[in-house]
Amino acid sequence: MALTVSLVFFAGILVVVxxxxxxxxxxxxxxxxxxxxxxxxxxIAPAINSTVGGIAGWLGTLG
Length: 63
Description:
Layout: H1 2-21, H2 26-40, H3 45-62
């Protein structure tokens, strides 16, 4: 759970920085957020969660 909150927090900060610097426009950012919410309600969401968890676990063993 702590990893999920950290990942969401980091991704949120990254999106805000990209929008503020002009590398990412507001409407494409909102479209990406809506796509993420839509993707989270599909059947592939558990596979994405386990993949992200596996990568995070692998990165945790490196440090």
